[in-house]
Amino acid sequence: MTEFDPDFKVDNGALALFSQYLGINDVDQIRRHILETTKKLKTSERTYRCLREYKFTAPRLAPRFYYQDILEDRQKRAQNGENPTLMDIGCCLGTDIRQLILDGYPGTSIVGVDLYRHFIDIGYDLFKDKDTLDVKFISGNIFDDHFLSPSDDIETAPLDQYKHQITYLNAGSVLHLFDGEQIRNFIRRAALLMKPGGWFVGAHVGGNRTAQYQRLLQGDIKHFESADDLTTVLEDAGFTHIDMRATQRLDESRTDEGFVALWLTFKAVYRPSNN
To answer: In this predicted model, what pLDDT tens digit does every residue of 218-271 receive, in sequence order?
Structure first.
């Protein structure tokens, strides 16, 4: 398992974010501040690989092919009198949310959701904005009926207020945490939150075919969903106009078995059959 590297370097993405958001331009000062945050992360119930590799220090949503499309589409909807809500499921420390705000997305129209409240609180510490950030954060498990009711006949769970209200739903580095049936369940439940015409976007590790392999570094069994199978799951849940893009991940591929791990990035439009 990879560990937190005490000698990590502040990259250009982190430098730009912290310079703009906190006004810190000194690389060493940024690095010290991040290392203080890392101490808190080490006490977390779960420390994902992306955290141990310091990917929380720079935005990961902004480089995606659909990011500028979201910002431009929001602007058009706002000009037409709409107030489109963006939900980030698996927001972790909320790094992407801070970048969205820097890029003009109003915080009052953003909802961050994560399984662990601890990550959300550490995000406040990392970005020093607990008393100023106007984003709504909610912690809970999307698979839990007491967090998101599975039917419109029940409206008592914390996420129920957002049913059919979300215009942009982001699930970055989330789907690859699940097995095949969990992926299907996640997408079905995510669809409960979507407005017709809303966009579901995400990025995660998949494969050229659906398979399960033991990862050498982590030692666990990982499920890889193929792009074709994921497209079918999205279509079955009411999504259309699916744009799925893939780049190869050599570190998790098995060339001797013909398996190629892929970084899958997608955008899909929610068009349920009754609309």
So the answer is: 557 889 999 999 999 999 999 999 999 999 986 776 766 788 889 999 999 999
pTM: 0.94
Give the torsion sign (CA, 113, 150, 197, 207).
Answer: positive
Q: What is the pLDDT of residues 81-95, one digit of tens each?
A: 999 999 999 999 999
Contact 241, 198 (CB under 8 A): no
Which domains can be identified in the chain, with CATH numbers? 12-270 (3.40.50.150)
Which residues touch 77 (CB under 8 Å, ≥6 apart)? 84, 167
